[in-house]
Amino acid sequence: MRGGGDIPPTVWVHAMEVGGGRIIGEACHFIDLFTYLSGSKVKAVCINAMGINPEENTDNASILLRYENGTNAVINYFGNGSKAYAKERVEVYSQERTLVMDNWRKLEGYGFKGFSSNSSSQDKGHAEQFKLLVQAVKQVVQPIIPMDELVNTTKASFAAIKSLKQGVWVDVD
Questions:
Q1: Does residue 151 sit within a domain?
Q2: What global pTM score does this model have?
Q3: Which domain holds residue 42?
Q4: Does a structural domain hold residue 3?
Q5: For 32-39, which contacts have Cβ atoms below 8 Å and span 24 or more sequence positions?
Q6: Could you state, in chain order, the average pLDDT of each consecutive group of 10 residues for the chain (173 residues)?
């Protein structure tokens, strides 16, 4: 996964007390995604950021996630890349198969019988998410994302900042 490009340091998203920085405020969505894909919760986090003394609101870092079920995930969140390159890319490797999602527009699968590439307009799922939310509220069904997963993602995001400051793996409890 790659970040959303360079944002000037004076923009609110970098203010830790307002936007939480790009790791807490934006990379958390990819922690949610990997939690969903893994079917597990984050157990520990380690982050390495560019620069000699990176700030906690960095937008140039690699986050390593260790899940309870043994899954590993890596989020490469970089705002310093070319805007000509796709903003977001997700690669999933499992059971001798690979999925590559390029900027929420193109999905390629390798090792799947009968899989064909799929290209479309960009769809990050916002419309579907709100449709499910309205349905859940009207019918009082299960939440779209279980509360314990949301709490785990929040704790993992904060643990990433703690890891950045301390330079160690941080357990998520």
A1: yes
A2: 0.81
A3: 12-167
A4: no
A5: 32/145, 32/149, 32/150, 32/153, 33/90, 34/65, 34/67, 34/71, 34/73, 34/75, 35/67, 35/149, 35/152, 35/153, 36/145, 36/149, 37/92, 38/67, 38/69, 38/71, 38/73, 39/69
A6: 64 76 88 95 96 85 97 93 87 94 90 82 69 73 84 96 95 95
